[in-house]
Amino acid sequence: MRAFSYERASDPAAAARRAAEVEGARYIAGGTNLLDLMKLEIETPVHLIDVSGTGLDEITETEDGGLRIGALVKNTALAADQRVRRDYAVLTRALVAGASGQLRNKATTAGNLLQRTRCPYFYDTAMPCNKRTPGAGCAALSEGAFSRQLGIIGTSEACIATHPSDMAVALRALDAVVETVTPAGDTRAIPLEDFHRLPGDTPQTETVLEPGELVTAVTLPAPVGGRHAYHKARDRASYAFALVSVALIRLPDGSGRVALGGVAPKPWRRAEADAELPNGARAVMARLLEGARPTEENAFKITLAERTLAAMLAEG
């Protein structure tokens, strides 16, 4: 790990101003992803701004009947909140499916959204990776590469990495909105649909956040009701990232919402696929994964996604 300086911030807007002032600065709170990346020298910030004391750790009700989740709310507390368990159960189930209990006790809402890919070539500094070193090439697309875990849709010729978050998949199904503060003190509300970028030619730019911009909260609209389910297919029963995950909200009239994880660089959902839900899993996946470009190793994800959703629908 390389040397870095450190300071604690007590105000979100002040933290954003400070981040814009110091080139190479990064925010830290739970640190469950960033510290690992620093140890491997994949991330080499020269200055850390600790935002854990900025007071963004509350869950409050909004005027329109939804919830506002502070950026620093721990994953364990969010999963256990009675309002979340009652009205947004898909979120609780996704959080419990992610990571270990110890990690959930440290990981935060904003950190979960901003965690970086688990592509093995991103973590192997001996291999080329456009996300880690722009212009270096993508080892995952080379002949004989290991791509079982990687993306099948929304990818590009520069990157086929997936977003690792379970929580973000549930938030996508819930139409969550990300709140931020900029270094100038302005605030923004960014629909989660637009928050993560597809890789294109610049896979190193993973979100629409501007330099120094700080995530302050995630808001959920009023509950939509229905049955909420989250299923994660993975290689081990616990502590493994998703091969495919499915977030499902099914309403009594048969309509609903479906979002996928483990298949794309961002939580994957399409409104036209939601509209196919009354017609069954095959119809949904035909729309949701239309245009998929799997590798030979991960083409099974298309079938796995369809069968996972079919099993969830069969449960009622």
Automatic annotation (TrEMBL):
InterPro entries: CO_DH_flav_C (IPR005107), CO_DH_flav_C_dom_sf (IPR036683), Diverse_Substr_Oxidored (IPR051312), FAD-bd_PCMH (IPR016166), FAD-bd_PCMH-like_sf (IPR036318), FAD-bd_PCMH_sub1 (IPR016167), FAD-bd_PCMH_sub2 (IPR016169), Mopterin_DH_FAD-bd (IPR002346). One of its GO terms (molecular function) is oxidoreductase activity. Coiled coil: none annotated. It comes from the Bacteria. Residues 1-225 form the FAD-binding PCMH-type domain. Keywords: FAD, Flavoprotein. Gene3D superfamilies: 3.30.465.10, CO dehydrogenase flavoprotein, C-terminal domain (3.30.390.50), Uridine Diphospho-n-acetylenolpyruvylglucosamine Reductase, domain 2 (3.30.43.10). It holds the Pfam family FAD_binding_5. This is Molybdopterin dehydrogenase. The lineage of its organism: Bacteria, Pseudomonadati, Pseudomonadota, Alphaproteobacteria, Hyphomicrobiales.
